Structure formats: structure tokens, C-alpha cells
């Protein structure tokens, strides 16, 4: 089958068009997703005041920002996504937002590692009901040819959350202490969840599909969805590339604030004023731009889903290495702008590709499996690995230990780049096979 035929799954305009109410759903789900990321980022931006108050090591804090959250987030993500493939997804997202907001407020009450860890467990469980069901909802509001750009706009919630988490979190911590910052963010989430229930309707499953689908078709089992990833080389390589990319992006996202303060002489008010907007804008450009680039490029070749993140890695990593060896935080931050764009370009293409290749009643579950790679390998191990390496180097008397720990993410970036290059060789054939199979 030719590549033009393969493009049917992604680029043909469905007769039904965009489902009514799609814009409102996109806005509200993006806002809720933003609160989701504010809750995650807040702990990272408050690392120095929390360390001073509760006397944690870098390794312990890597556990709190990474593995403690990621294990529960990723583990609960799959069963919650299976539920989302079977029940009202709008109600599920609203309930999840309420849960993670309450536990985020509980972070502000913690006085020990275990209390803060328990609160992070709860945040992770709640946030497991956010991204995968939201993407499934949007896939039923928007047709295949619009999904990369729409998902790119939705996943801008990450940069928005980073911007708000850093800028607002730094300001709130300076005004009310780090505990007060958690309380204020929790209130925002609890207030936003009811708006979703009131204003967004659950869309009909398959309403925007190119091919004829049965809305009442049975949902796939977890084993069947896992076999989908094992059977298609494109999805296997996507798991590897996305996991390695997430290892780099989450690791840097969680530790760059500490690096700028500890190694480059940046103060907390300066972090709030300069790094917050810079990180939010750059990562927003990267995530939105990744979706937009693929939206355009895939009209000519589906390999755009692979080449966009591969080229971004090749460009961004060398510049980031340079940023770690320049004097002073202004120049370091200036050089970090391009890498912060590049390290997030992979997100929207990966999520859109899974939505397009997965069967109708397995989208949320398939997305959760991809997020498993994002979060176990990326969020769980990225920040933790950097923290462990930093502590080991510091104990060995190595100067600038955090700088060298951040450099250890470079091999993971190389793995991601190779995986995407290999994926460019399989995506056309796999998409064609998917179209043929799901048309039967």
C-alpha cells in the first residue's frame, strides 16, 4: 500500500467534521491540565525552601519529585484509563481534578518525608485520571487531521503549568511560605472541577472518525491493548523514544531551577521573575510547535511524526551542554531557551500518533500505556537519577556536582534520537496496516 493510502487514517477529512462544543471542551480540559502541571511543578520550584525547612538530601527530593509521584501516577493510569474507555469521561476527569487538588493541599501540611510522600502518592493517584481520559474526549471532538495540532494546544497545559507553578509558586512562597503556595493551588483545582461538569458534554465515541465505527463496540482488554504495542514496531519504538525523551525533559525540568539557584547564583525572586516565564513560553512553543509541525508535515509524509522530535534532540542537546558551562545565570538561561523548546517537541506527536493508531474503545488505555513510559522512565527515574548522581559526586568531593549530574541525561537523549530515526522507517507501513485492519 502506498504512503498516500496510509495517510487516510490521519489526514482524510471525515464527513462528520469537528464535534459541536469542541472549543469549550479544549479550553476547560486545558485549564484543568494546567492545574495538573502546577501541582507537579510547585514541588520542584520550592525545592530550596523545603530542603531548608525539612532537611532533605537531593536524593530524597528526587524521590519526592519523581518516583514517589510517578509510581502511583503511572500505576493507576492504566486502570483509570480502562475505566475511561467504558464510562462517562467528563465526570471521571472532574472527579480526578478534585482528588489531586485535595492532596496537593495536603502537601502544605507535611512535616516529614513520609507525610509529604503520602500526599504526593495521593496527587499521583488523582492526576492519573487527567491526561488519558482528556485526550480520549478530544479525539471524539476533533477529526484525525486536526488532532496533532489540537493535542499540541491541549498539552500546552504543561508549559502553562510550569510558568504558573514557577512564577506564582515563587511569589506565593515569598509572600505566604511554601505551605501557603500549596493551599492556594489546591483551592483553584477544587473550584475548576465543577465547571467542567456544568459546561462540557460527554461526546459520542467515534463521532469524528473517517471510517465507519460502532460506538457500542466492546472495549479492548488490557492484554489486547498491550499486544497492539507489541505487534506494531512503530508503537514499540515510540515507547522507547518517548520514555527516553521524558527522562531528559522531566529530569531537566525538575532540576534546572535548583541548578540556576545553586550553581549560577539566581535568587528565588529572580527565578520567579525570569525562569518561570522563560520556561513556560519556551516549552509552550515546543509542545504547540511539535503538534503544528507534524500537522503540516504529515500531509506529505507520516515520517514527520518521527523526524520532528529526532531533529529537535540533535539541535537541543549540544546547546544545553554549552549552557551548563557559561558563567552567571543570565547567559546560562539565555542558552537554555532553545533546549527548553526542543526537549518538549516530542510530546504532541507521540500522543496524537497513539490516538490515531489505537482502536476506538482502547484510546484512553493505549494513551495510559504511553504515559507509563513517560512517567516511570521519565518522571520517575529522570529527577531521581540526577539527584542520586549529584549526591554521589558531591560525596566524592566533585565540584559543581549538579552540573555533571545534568550532563548524564545526554546518553538518554541519544537513545531517543535513534529510536525516532528507526520509527521513521516503520510508520508508513504500520499506519497502512492499521487502516486496513480497522476497516474490516
* Number of strand segments: 0
Rg from Cα: 21 Å
Total number of helical segments? 21
Give the terminus-to-terminus CA distance.
Answer: 16 Å
CATH class: Mainly Alpha
Q: What characterizes the major β-sheet? A: none
Q: What's the CATH superfamily, by name?
A: MFS general substrate transporter like domains
Low-confidence stretches: 1-17
Fold and architecture overview:
It contains 21 helices and no strands. The protein is mainly α and 440 residues long. It has a single domain, classed as MFS general substrate transporter like domains (Growth Hormone, Chain: A), CATH 1.20.1250.20. The longest helix has 43 residues, at 157-199. It starts with a helix and ends with a helix.
Protein topology:
Elements: H1 3-6, H2 8-11, H3 22-45, H4 47-54, H5 58-84, H6 89-107, H7 113-127, H8 131-139, H9 147-154, H10 157-199, H11 222-231, H12 233-262, H13 268-297, H14 304-323, H15 329-342, H16 347-357, H17 363-380, H18 382-395, H19 401-407, H20 410-423, H21 427-438
Helix pairs in contact: 3-6, 3-8, 3-10, 5-7, 5-17, 5-18, 6-7, 6-8, 6-10, 8-17, 9-13, 9-16, 10-13, 11-12, 12-17, 12-18, 12-20, 13-14, 13-15, 13-16, 14-15, 14-20, 16-17, 18-19
Amino acid at each position: 500500500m502506498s504512503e498516500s493510502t496510509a495517510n487516510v487514517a490521519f489526514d482524510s477529512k471525515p464527513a462528520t467534521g469537528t464535534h459541536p462544543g469542541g472549543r469549550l471542551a479544549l479550553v476547560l480540559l486545558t485549564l484543568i491540565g494546567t492545574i495538573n502541571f502546577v501541582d507537579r511543578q510547585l514541588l520542584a520550584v520550592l525545592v530550596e525552601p523545603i530542603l531548608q525547612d525539612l532537611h532533605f538530601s537531593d536524593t530524597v527530593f528526587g524521590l519526592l519529585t519523581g518516583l514517589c509521584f510517578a509510581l502511583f501516577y503511572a500505576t493507576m493510569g492504566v486502570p483509570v484509563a480502562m475505566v475511561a474507555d467504558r464510562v462517562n469521561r467528563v465526570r471521571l476527569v472532574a472527579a480526578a481534578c478534585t482528588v489531586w487538588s485535595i492532596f496537593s493541599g495536603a502537601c502544605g501540611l507535611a512535616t516529614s518525608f513520609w507525610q509529604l510522600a503520602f500526599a504526593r502518592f495521593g496527587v499521583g493517584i488523582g492526576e492519573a485520571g487527567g491526561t488519558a481520559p482528556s485526550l480520549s474526549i478530544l479525539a471524539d471532538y476533533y477529526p484525525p487531521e486536526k488532532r496533532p495540532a489540537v493535542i499540541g494546544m491541549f498539552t500546552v497545559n504543561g508549559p502553562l503549568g510550569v510558568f504558573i507553578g514557577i512564577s506564582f509558586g515563587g511569589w506565593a512562597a515569598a509572600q505566604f511560605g511554601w505551605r501557603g503556595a500549596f493551599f492556594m493551588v489546591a483551592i483553584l483545582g477544587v473550584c475548576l472541577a465543577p465547571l467542567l461538569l456544568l459546561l462540557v458534554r460527554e461526546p459520542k465515541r467515534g463521532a469524528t472518525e473517517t471510517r465507519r465505527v460502532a460506538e457500542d463496540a466492546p472495549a479492548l482488554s488490557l492484554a489486547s491493548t498491550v499486544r497492539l504495542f507489541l505487534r506494531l514496531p512503530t508503537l514499540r519504538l515510540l515507547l522507547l523514544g518517548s520514555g527516553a525523551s521524558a527522562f531528559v525533559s522531566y529530569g531537566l525540568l525538575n532540576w534546572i531551577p535548583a541548578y540556576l539557584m545553586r550553581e549560577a547564583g539566581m535568587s528565588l525572586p529572580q527565578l520567579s521573575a525570569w525562569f518561570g516565564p522563560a520556561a513556560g513560553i519556551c516549552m509552550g512553543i515546543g509542545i504547540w510547535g511539535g503538534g503544528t509541525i507534524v500537522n503540516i508535515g504529515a500531509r506529505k509524509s507520516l515520517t514527520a511524526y518521527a523526524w520532528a522530535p529526532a531533529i529537535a534532540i540533535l539541535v537541543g542537546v549540544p546547546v544545553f551542554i554549552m549552557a551548563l558551562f557559561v558563567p552567571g545565570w543570565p547567559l546560562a538561561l539565555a542558552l537554555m531557551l532553545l533546549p527548553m523548546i526542543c526537549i518538549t517537541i516530542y510530546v504532541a506527536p507521540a500522543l496524537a500518533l497513539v490516538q490515531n493508531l489505537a482502536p476506538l474503545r482502547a484510546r484512553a488505555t493505549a494513551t495510559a500505556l504511553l504515559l507509563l513510559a513517560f512517567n516511570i522512565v521519565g518522571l520517575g527515574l529522570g529527577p531521581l537519577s540526577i539527584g542520586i548522581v549529584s549526591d554521589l559526586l558531591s560525596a566524592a568531593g566533585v565540584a559543581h556536582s549538579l552540573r555533571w549530574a545534568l550532563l548524564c541525561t545526554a546518553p538518554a537523549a541519544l537513545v531517543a534520537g535513534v529510536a525516532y530515526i528507526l520509527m521513521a522507517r516503520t510508520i508508513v507501513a504500520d499506519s497502512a496496516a492499521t487502516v486496513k485492519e480497522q476497516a474490516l
